[in-house]
Amino acid sequence: MTSRFGKTDLYVSRLCQGTAFRHLPRTGDDPQGQRVLQHCLEKGINFFDSSNAYGWGGSEIALGKAVAGRRQQVTICTKVAASYPPKAPGNGTKPARFTRHFLFQQAEESLKRLGTNYIDLYLLHQPDEGTPIDDIVDSMDTLVQSGKIRYWGASNHSAKQVAQFVAVGKKSSKTPIAGIEDYYNIAGESVDSEGQSRTGQLEREMFPLIRQIELGLVAFSPLDAGNLSPNQQVKATSPLAELVQALDQIAQNLNVTRAELCVAWVLTHTEVTSVLSGAESPEHVDQNLAGTQLVLPQEVVKTLNAANKTYRKQIEQKPVNR
After folding, report:
1. Is residue 47 within 8 Å of 41, Cβ to Cβ?
2. 144 half-sphere exposure, CB direction, 13 A CA radius
3. Mean pLDDT score, 61-77
4. In this predicted model, what pLDDT tens digit does every residue of 136-191 receive, in sequence order?
5. Domain 2-226+256-296: which topology?
6. For residues 318 and 298, what is the distance between their CA atoms, to the nearest angstrom?
7. What DSSP line would sit under 57-103, residue for residue?
8. Domain range list for the chain
9. Distance linking the first and last C-alpha atoms of the chain
10. Fewer C-beta neighbours within 10 Å, C or N terminus of the chain?
11. Among 108, 178, 171, which residue's Cα sits nearest to residue 138?
């Protein structure tokens, strides 16, 4: 099953497989990573995500190797970080500006690593506060017109910043922003600089904009960066313990895994186009894929929403004690 990404002509699978592996090498020569990506293709997943910053090109090489010979069957999303790649392994990075020269240079290098002559969806990996919005929109439009990318978007940006991209695009008749990639899951431990839940902020500020502009949304980290993994030890005194208990009780009642339930919950929100997961085994790919096909009863959704709301209030009041 596929969904249209915003207003584009990209029809993507409800599960997007990422290449920001946490435990597997971010390289093109890792056999386990290749097995995972090949399994995704065999299961009909057509949407893959990467970034020039994942292994500083290694993950893009891995993805390019996996989809070689199948390029027309897949949608490739990759991102450009606002950093210069380290000059040598282990070295630190230096911040970069999203100038036209930098964006074109990084896009060209991503294209080479991916082994393709176009990128379906090219995202700004994080905000660049120093480059004028008008200049960024103009550069992304030029990339589209050049044929190097088909659509562009933003990752980890605020609703205000995305709205500015929209406004500038309309004013200047440039290629509009197509969508975003952001952190969203039922736990949502991550908070902003003011201690507010990032997932709550997404719902309050970004979701209305997504509906108004008809943007696509790739929601990453359905298991909250592993915090919701069954292998993760949760202290009984942690607010997360109550949420996990609710998840596991419902999962047992429905005879599904926790991962399936977490993916399914994210997709109960119509603003979400696709769930981005970093599965590192074929088994986990299958669980996440099953979650995209799981239709949750309304009573279950209400119960999960209540558990989510309770947990969110607790993490906004004090640091989470694991």
Report:
1. no
2. 19
3. 98
4. 999 999 999 999 999 999 999 999 999 999 999 999 999 999 999 999 999 987 76
5. TIM Barrel (3.20.20)
6. 31
7. GHHHHHHHHHHTT-GGG-EEEEEE-SEEPPSSTT---EE----HHHH
8. 2-226+256-296
9. 37
10. N
11. 171
